[in-house]
Amino acid sequence: MKQWIDGAPALTLEGVIYSPGAAPLFKGLDLTVPMGRCTVFMGPSGAGKSTVLRLGAGLIPPDSGTVLYRGLDWSELSDHENAVFREGMGFAFQNGALWANKSVYQNIELPYLYHRPKAERQEVRDAVARAAHQAGIQGQLALRPSQLSLGEQKSVSLARALVMDPPVLFLDDPTGSLDAQATEKQLQLFTELKRAGRTIILVTQDPLVTSRIADRLVLMKAGEVVTEGEFAEVTRNPNPEVVAILTSVLSQAATFSGDILDLLSIDQGDGDALK
Question: pTM of the entire structure?
Answer without folding.
Answer: 0.88
